[in-house]
Backbone:
């Protein structure tokens, strides 16, 4: 059985294409049913996010399934296949497994380590479970993917540092202030960047928001949105000492605040630290202010620098994550490749051993034989069983490396009426390895 | 090997492994070692407490009459104070600092001559254990303030210069460090004051004079003034942050000199020889 991946992502397709083949989350039943209705496909999951659309499938005829799945993506969305084809990738076997594990662990994301993707894949798996399109292999595989993602998250620092300017600002604030819950943030100017950063601070529990703007009505509007207080631009300097965090992004050509004023403010604050973020270009706050004790002034470039350093850190951590994935692939692949043949051999041997033991018991209880005879009978029957099973066993083992291997397995199961393998067949498979 | 030496070695090993574990946590960014380190450190402190008590039972007086014993007692105070702070702050960087300092102190203690001679009976009053306990516990608190001060300066420099080293991720916020500085000061200062007062009372009961301006007394008083200035500055003029950190560092430097420098370089009634009734 093969695991397959067909799809496209931000790496291979522009957003114009991605949005056309995205699946609607409210109607996943239809495409999932159509997908497993394809003859060559056994199980299927559809992952659809704004950065990727991928089909995960299992199949006994990988090449045929891949061709059908590629077509399916185009046909389902009524697109011309030839136009879509160049953006699609298809993976099978180990490559497919590695791909899914990397995606879940957020190594393939646009921003490495971003946390949403795992949730999105879990949702996709949820739909597949709901519509019963994921079977034994994909169930096991997806749980593997989730646990690998968790391992990566806990064993590496891949997601530990902020990689957006506004998150970086919040993170810096946490390095200055013990907690943000009792802090006040002041917005000078009501620009979009300011608003975004303010939102991040509010989400992180900031207590109060003050807004000032040259156009007072704009300040009022923004203040209302944040449940804060608007301050007239003429006298915001007098209230500056109330602010622990200042976000500034006015369109003013010169400095809105100079170092001298800030030195006074810090005195008024009894040296309580102030974190000032100057997002404006040209800058609003005199850079010299960073030299004042207890003032920490960051401009856009400073924040970008922090983000770049964090991204570098994440890429370093990604290498550790790849090693974890390599390890897990080996484990999973072993299970997958023994899934078909080994349980069959185990079941076959169990069946024969059962028969042999029942018959030996029957004979011995009628025979009242001495110990030595009993042992010989036992050895004799064991030898016969082993001799009989030797050839079929080695043919079955051989079969797992051949495309028509499934025929033999099917035949053996039918001839000896063997039970179908359970979900945790891997355990039995491991036992048979020891027997050899 | 006497039981005392064995216990001493066990304690040293505990503190040393706690240091290594804390460093693994701080530098290697691994979670588990940090948690184990705390317990190892606690185990060391308990063993050391037992060692003190057996020593006390054997000698019949508080075992701080030579450099070996004093340093070892200081190490214990330091660890005890850290564990106390850890209840609230959970700061493994402070743990790394405290346990490392405890190891250094213990090593110093190990090098110092261990011979225990009978205490000058004239000096053996109940003021003696009071005086040294207050003084050493105060010192330990100031050592934590010093550690927090150094970390504050490091963190402050990184935030100002916008270049962050690996340590940045493990250092707590400036506010927290400043808070520790203040709390350590608010424990250390009364303890030190009590130490000086109980010392004066002891001197009065033995020599009939409260204060005799021997070098240790003079230096202790100077150190006391440094910390008094810091406390005053904090409470009434709103000193904090960098300045408070720098003061805590200066204060600790004075303290080290009072503790070690005076004993090793200068003479006076605080030397161990004097304590044992030898001429100085």
Residues:
């Amino acid at each position: 059985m093969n695991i397959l991946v067909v799809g496209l992502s931000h790496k291979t397709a522009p957003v114009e294409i991605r949005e056309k083949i995205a699946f609607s989350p409210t109607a996943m039943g239809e495409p999932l049913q159509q997908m497993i209705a394809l003859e060559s496909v056994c199980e299927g999951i559809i992952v659809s996010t704004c950065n990727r659309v991928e089909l995960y499938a299992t199949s006994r005829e990988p090449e045929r399934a891949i061709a059908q799945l590629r077509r399916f993506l185009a046909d389902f969305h009524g697109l011309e296949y030839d136009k879509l084809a160049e953006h699609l990738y298809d993976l099978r076997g180990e490559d497919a497994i590695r791909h899914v594990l990397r995606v879940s662990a957020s190594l393939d994301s646009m921003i490495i380590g971003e946390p949403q993707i795992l949730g999105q894949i879990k949702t996709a798996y949820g739909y597949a479970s709901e519509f019963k399109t994921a079977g034994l292999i994909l169930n096991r595989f997806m749980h593997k993917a989730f646990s690998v993602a968790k391992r990566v998250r806990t064993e590496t620092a891949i997601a530990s540092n902020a990689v957006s300017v506004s998150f970086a600002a919040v993170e810096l604030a946490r390095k200055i202030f013990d907690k943000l819950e009792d802090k006040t943030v002041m917005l000078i100017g009501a620009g979009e960047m300011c608003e975004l950063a303010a939102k991040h601070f509010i989400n992180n529990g900031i207590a109060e928001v003050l807004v000032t703007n040259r156009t007072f009505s704009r300040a009022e509007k923004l203040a209302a949105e944040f449940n804060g207080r608007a301050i007239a631009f003429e006298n915001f300097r007098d209230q500056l000492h109330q602010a622990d965090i200042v976000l500034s992004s006015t369109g003013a050509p010169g400095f809105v605040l100079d170092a001298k004023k800030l030195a006074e403010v810090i005195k008024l604050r009894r040296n309580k630290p102030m974190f000032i973020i100057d997002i404006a270009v040209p800058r609003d706050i005199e850079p010299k202010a960073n030299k004042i004790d207890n003032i920490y002034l960051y401009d856009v470039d400073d924040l970008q620098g922090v983000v770049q350093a964090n991204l570098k850190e994440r890429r370093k951590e990604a290498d550790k994550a790849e090693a974890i994935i390599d390890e897990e692939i080996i484990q999973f692949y072993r299970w997958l490749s023994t899934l078909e043949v080994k349980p069959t051999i185990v079941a076959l041997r169990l069946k024969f051993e059962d028969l042999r033991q029942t018959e030996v018991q029957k004979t011995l209880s009628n025979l009242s034989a001495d110990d030595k005879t009993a042992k010989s009978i036992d050895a004799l029957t064991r030898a016969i069983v082993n001799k009989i099973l030797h050839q079929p066993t080695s043919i079955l083992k051989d079969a797992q490396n051949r495309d028509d291997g499934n025929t033999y397995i099917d035949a053996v199961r039918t001839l000896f009426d063997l039970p179908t393998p359970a979900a945790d067949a891997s355990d039995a498979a491991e036992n048979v390895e020891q027997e050899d | 090997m006497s039981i005392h030496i064995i216990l001493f070695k066990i304690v040293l090993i505990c503190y040393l492994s706690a240091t290594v574990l804390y460093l693994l946590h701080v530098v290697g960014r691994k979670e588990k070692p940090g948690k184990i380190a705390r317990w190892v450190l606690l185990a060391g402190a308990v063993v050391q407490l037992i060692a003190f008590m057996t020593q006390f039972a054997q000698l019949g007086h508080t075992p701080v009459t030579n450099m070996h014993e004093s340093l070892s007692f200081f190490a214990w105070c330091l660890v005890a104070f850290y564990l106390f702070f850890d209840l609230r702050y959970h700061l493994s960087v402070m743990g790394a600092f405290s346990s490392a300092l405890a190891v250094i102190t213990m090593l110093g203690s190990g090098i110092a001559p261990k011979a225990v001679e009978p205490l000058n009976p004239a000096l053996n009053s109940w003021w003696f254990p009071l005086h040294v306990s207050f003084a050493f516990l105060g010192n330990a608190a100031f050592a934590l303030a010093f550690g927090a001060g150094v970390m504050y300066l490091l963190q402050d420099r990184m935030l100002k210069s916008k270049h962050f080293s690996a340590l940045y991720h493990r250092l707590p916020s400036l506010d927290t460090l400043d808070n520790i500085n203040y709390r350590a000061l608010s424990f250390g200062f009364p303890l030190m004051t009590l130490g000086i007062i109980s010392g004066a009372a002891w001197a009065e009961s033995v020599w009939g004079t409260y204060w005799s301006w021997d070098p240790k007394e003079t230096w202790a008083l100077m150190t006391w003034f440094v910390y008094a200035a810091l406390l005053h500055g904090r409470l009434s003029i709103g000193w904090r942050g960098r300045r408070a950190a720098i003061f805590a560092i200066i204060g600790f430097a004075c303290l080290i000199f009072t503790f070690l420098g005076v004993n090793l370089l200068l003479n006076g009634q605080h030397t161990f020889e004097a304590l044992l009734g030898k001429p100085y």
